[in-house]
Amino acid sequence: MTGMARETPAGDLRLANLTKRFGVFTAVDDLSLTIEQGSFFALLGASGCGKTTTLRMIAGLEEPTTGQVLLGDRDIARLRPYKRPVNTVFQSYALFPHLSIFENVAFGLRRRGIRSVDDEVTRMLSLVQLDGYGNRRPAQLSGGQQQRVALARALINRPQVLLLDEPLGALDLKLRRQMQIELKRIQIEVGITFVHVTHDQEEAMTMADTVAVMNAGRIEQLGAPADIYEFPATAFVANFLGQSNLLAGEATGAGGGDVAVTAHGTRFSVPAGRSRADHGPVHLGVRPEKLILVGSADQVPQGHQHVTGVVTDASYVGVSTQYLLRTGWGTEVSVFAANSGASERVPVGSEAVAYWDPRHAFLLPRDAADTDRTSPVLDEPVGAPS
Amino acid sequence: MRLSRWLADRWVMIVALLVLGYLALPILVVAALSFNRPSSRLSYDFNEFTLDNWRQPCATSDMCDAVVRSVQIGFLATVVATVLGTLMAFALVRHRFRGRSGINVLIFLPMATPELVMGTSLLALFVSAGVPQGFWTILIAHVMFCVSFVVVTVKARLAGMDRRLEEAAMDLYANEWQTFRRITLPLVLPGIVAAALLAFSLSFDDFIITNFNAGTTVTFPMYVWGAAQRGIPPQVNVIGTAMFAVALLLVGLSSLRGRRARRANLLAGPPGHLRRSS
């Protein structure tokens, strides 16, 4: 929050200290962020985290309790929805059932008093590959087609910002993948800022330039998908975006570019650049796919660190085999081994060693009461006994 | 064996036809009697076929006056009750205010109260307030009991409507009035039309409440009631049959329209037809 942050380029969308309370419940809590013009931005979070409320405040369907929604230098937070250069693709599409597809798409243009809409509507329908569907009613279209109508209906107005509220949630997996690519293609083609709300981490990572992970009305972390994934800021992010093995330990201080950690009686180290704490209670995190499973400690290369245990489960899922390794202190660590043919499969019940390159580990501050976390947690109990 | 199998396969159909016959029989009798030349005033036997009743439906002029009055009252009561009831339904579904749940219960009161009780209490009210009974008191009474049915019918339609459609319209640059005119009203209209038809039929055939508050005014149901004492003129059957035919025509038209629209939608495919409206 230095002087530099005051200037907002003309088309950027900036949320400043945005808060929304419903009675005593705070849905969005003092949220501030900047979304660059022309970028594809994803708000990622579990249901009830405030992401949809944030979107509705940008659209004007919800009035913020306090705070600003700035488009360039203009605060639009208190404008009626029809006065904002913002359009929305709703979760259930909300197509007008009594109007034809043509009239649905033309709706925004007509309301703004534009007389000749034929060319524009036809062009839009072909952008979303629905040429010739103009005379149909929404009920006669499949889910994927309705989704594309909803998109065309919003895009035809050339908004400064397009909001997408879980737009692919109702589609089956294959169609969803197809539409993700399609949406990304269209976004690049039209160059409009897309703000996409989703609970699907893969969807957010596939499409967005920038992802903001939300939890309990606040942003836990914001950044490029790869950055967030490789170096999560909190235990919540580490397990919401993919899986992480988080071992509870104590950091004993930095020295020589590394932070030393003691966890369950074993000493580990993490590069200082990948540590968000250098003393006190910490979580030592390693992604399951960064762990390599071998038969004995002799096979661990120089400079790597390891834990030993017994393989309790091996699930073959095609591209990889997912192992569970029970460590000496009882925690199950998960290990993903790519089925590339480079390594042998490890039988269940055998002793094994999981090792990793310290540069792939990360260190997060931990609540003193928090223990190991080795599976994705969404609704974790607070302060579970250790 | 074969017969029992045949019956087993079709018994639902047979029962349905019997029930249909049960429902239709009185109407068929009315239709048949509209073509009857009764042998005497109090006779209901089918005596001789004639078209006279249909050629001169107003042979007994009191009756036609009564029909015209009933249609007038029905029309006015429908308009007033539909407008008031629709506004009330919107208020009850769309707004949160004190006493809302109380009103939701009160709405059912006129439906639950016996007509006899409502008729007498209205009469007591009009008499004590010094309002002369006649056309206007009938109208007030009819509006009162029709409103309840309108509110309930429109409310059901409105509650089933997705609020996001209105949000989507506002998001697409429609202001409050345009949203109502383009989205809300067209989507709620079937409910309003149904409510209006219900209100008209309730008003047109109400006897009990009307009878208490009519003064010297005579509506069609009151005329029929009075005529029954001294023999119903066959023209009453003509009016009854005509009413039935009109109702049948309306139902037939609306279902035909629905089927045509569906058909047109299914056939609609290639581009070229671009509709314009503003």
UniProtKB/TrEMBL annotation, chain B:
CDD domains: TM_PBP2. Keywords: Cell membrane, Membrane, Transmembrane, Transmembrane helix, Transport. InterPro entries: Bact_Polyamine_Transport, MetI-like, MetI-like_sf. Its main location: membrane. It comes from the Bacteria. Pfam families: BPD_transp_1. It is a multi-pass membrane protein. Residues 67-254 form the ABC transmembrane type-1 domain. It is found in: Cell membrane. The chain crosses the membrane at residues 12-35, 73-93, 105-129, 135-154, 183-204, 238-256. PANTHER family: PUTRESCINE TRANSPORT SYSTEM PERMEASE PROTEIN POTI (PTHR43848:SF2). Belongs to the binding-protein-dependent transport system permease family. CysTW subfamily. This is ABC transporter permease. It comes from Micromonospora parva.
